[in-house]
Amino acid sequence: MPRPVSPVHARPGAGLFVSLEGIDGSGKSTQAGRLAQALVAAGHDVIQTREPGGSPGAEDIRRLLVSGAPDRWSAETEILLFTAARRDHLEKTILPGLARGAVVITDRFADSTRVYQGCARADLRQTVDALHDRLIGRDPDLTLIIDMDPHTALTRGLARQSGEDRFEERGLAFQTALRDGFLALARANPQRCRVIDGMRAEAAVAADILAAITPFLPQGSPA
Ligand code: ADP
Ligand code: TYD
Fold first, then answer.
1. How many domains are contained in the chain?
2. Ligand 1 touching residue 117 (CB < 6 A)
3. Global pTM?
4. Ligand 1 in contact with 157 (CB < 6 A)?
């Protein structure tokens, strides 16, 4: 085994690292906002962030990733850009947040690379895992996977007209493969992943998310 190149770890026991994952338009950003609000109202120190992005340098890289033609980058270049953005996000936002004891809620993290780039090019999945081990070296304490029908999610997502549709333009078959990919990840990582049914009203989804996170909060904390 090669020695990892400067892996990054937060102090054990400090803060709580939570990711929201799922296909495009599944309600991650909506739920990240609701969760952050609920935890702040309950007195927690919360950092709400997102990928690609979440730090000034990573937001610069995001602009390269989410706009332009679908074939703008090769699969290999794309993996490097996502990983570069994630490393900066981890160094500048996530680890300092965890070190101060905050609940860090990120809209997407490494599971998105495993699933999106793994679905696009299955032969590159080992490269994704190797880069993660060597340069990121950390997964969330809890991952909430919002699961829903890709057709409904795609309609919701494209209705936003955000101008960031480079990935969404790849269509329904790709979104269906992504959904299966996220569910497979949840099955493979039952200790940190919880699947949340996203096909319901926002408040019902939010209540399930709060119930899932409560056991992970510091003892005695209200949620
Ligand atoms: P994501 O971050 O996963 O792409 P968003 O949170 O941006 O998803 O939601 C996509 C769109 O769907 C937004 O217009 C949002 O207002 C809407 N939306 C989110 N959750 C629900 C829900 N439970 N029911 C109906 N519409 C929703
Ligand atoms: P995001 O802004 O979360 O999109 P959405 O709100 O539509 O869910 O992410 C932008 C796109 O980048 C999205 O289609 C998923 C894709 N993506 C990857 O392919 N790999 C990654 O590692 C990440 C973080 C995102």
1. 1
2. no
3. 0.92
4. yes
